């Protein structure tokens, strides 16, 4: 599934939090790994108290040494430094992804205040996920921990069948790691509806209540189909239908299940502020230290 994994690095120890996960996935799926450093225009001399890589030769030496530290010899690791200084690091990552490296997965850490800055709250992950059309895994900034363990995978779904397109990824990862797959669908209550739906609920509360009850019944049937499928595939799976605010309930499910990974199907598009500022995906990613895998869906 993941034949080529791309890991952009800036030289900091916090960015290296992505490497144990990359090594684990590469081992499980027999993937190759590409380590990428983009020379940033007017880059600071330090990043997170680490010496920042501003010289191409130094960056190449760092990537080579990092490959030896984090990856066994059985895993093919190559490294590349984009030597021409660029102001837009995200654009450069996307261009390398689509034109040269063509990875099946990009792993990004969410740290920094320049260049590879604020990946969850800012623009780089948004641009990479949307423009490259490649699955992106977001990792919170921590000291690199090895080995990476994956026991429970949480997949939030709704009643739109298009989001089921994230399930093949979840199924393959769960089977490879022998992890349990936990599905969750959150049906709003009248009090947690927003926007036009909230206005309609206030005007026609009985109709809105009936609609939400039907949505819950559909979700039950929907989940049963998936549970039967997973049972046939030999994958342990659970399904939860909750009522309330989606972000709150997904966070609750992730904590109760002790999820190791959350997989979202997402329609991230550059310039759509709602995706990062008000979306369920961003809200959950901000509040958990668990890796989040974004699967781009058709617009």
Task: Write a structural description.
By secondary structure, the protein is of the alpha/beta class. The protein folds into two domains: 4-139, HUPs (Rossmann fold, 3-Layer(aba) Sandwich); 152-292, 3-Layer(aba) Sandwich (Rossmann fold), CATH 3.40.50.620. Helices cover 40% and strands 23% of the residues. It contains ten helices and twelve strands. The chain has helices at 19-29, 56-70, 89-101, 124-132, 167-177, 195-203, 205-232, 246-257, 273-277, 280-287; strands at residues 4-8, 32-40, 46-47, 50-51, 77-86, 105-109, 136-139, 152-157, 180-187, 237-243, 261-266, 292-296. Strands 5-2-1-6-7-12-11-8-9-10 form a ten-stranded mixed sheet, with helices on both faces. Helix 3 (89-101) runs parallel beside helix 4 (124-132) and helix 8 packs across helix 10. The longest helix is centred in the C-terminal third of the chain and has 28 residues, at 205-232.
Q: Which runs of at least 5 residues are low in confidence (pLDDT < 50)?
A: 112-123, 269-278
Number of helices: 10
Q: Strands of the biggest beta sheet: in what spatial order? A: 5-2-1-6-7-12-11-8-9-10
SSE-based structural type = alpha/beta
Characterize the main sheet.
10 strands, mixed
CATH top level of the largest domain?
Alpha Beta
CATH fold name of the largest domain: Rossmann fold
User: What are the secondary-structure elements, in order, as H or E?
Assistant: EHEEEHEHEHEEHEHHEHEHHE
Shape: elongated
Subunit arrangement of the protein? single chain
* Mean pLDDT figure: 79
- Tally of individual domains: 2
Kindly report how far apart the N and C termini lie.
22 Å
Radius of gyration: 20 Å
Say how many strands there are.
Answer: 12
- Helical proportion, percent range: 40-55%
Provide the β-strand percentage band.
Answer: 15-25%
CATH architecture heading of the largest domain? 3-Layer(aba) Sandwich
């Amino acid at each position: 599934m993941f034949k080529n994994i791309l890991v952009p690095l800036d030289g900091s120890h916090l960015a290296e939090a992505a490497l144990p996960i990359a090594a684990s996935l590469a081992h499980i799926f027999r993937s190759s790994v590409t380590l990428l450093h983009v020379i940033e225009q007017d880059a600071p001399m330090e990043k997170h108290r680490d010496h920042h890589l501003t010289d191409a030769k130094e960056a190449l030496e760092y990537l080579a040494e990092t490959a030896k530290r984090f990856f066994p010899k059985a895993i093919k690791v190559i490294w590349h430094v984009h030597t021409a200084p660029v102001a837009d690091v995200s654009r450069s990552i996307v261009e390398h992804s689509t034109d040269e490296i063509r990875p099946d997965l990009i792993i990004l850490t969410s740290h920094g205040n320049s260049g590879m800055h604020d990946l969850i709250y800012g623009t780089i992950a948004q641009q990479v996920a949307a423009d490259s059309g490649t699955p992106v895994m977001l990792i919170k900034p921590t000291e690199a921990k090895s080995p990476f363990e994956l026991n429970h995978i949480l997949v939030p779904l709704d009643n739109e069948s298009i989001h089921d397109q994230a399930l093949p990824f979840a199924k393959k990862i769960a089977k490879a790691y022998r992890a349990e797959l936990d599905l969750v669908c959150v049906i709003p209550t009248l009090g947690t509806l927003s926007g036009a739906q909230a206005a309609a609920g206030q005007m026609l509360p009985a109709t809105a209540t009936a609609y939400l009850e039907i949505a819950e019944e559909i979700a039950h049937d929907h989940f049963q189909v998936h549970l039967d499928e997973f049972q046939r595939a030999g994958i342990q799976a659970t399904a939860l239908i909750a009522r309330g605010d989606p972000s709150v309930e997904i966070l609750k499910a992730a904590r109760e299940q002790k999820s190791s990974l959350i997989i979202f199907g997402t329609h991230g598009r550059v310039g759509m502020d709602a995706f990062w500022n008000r979306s369920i995906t961003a809200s959950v990613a901000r509040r958990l230290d668990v890796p989040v895998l974004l699967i781009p869906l058709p617009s």
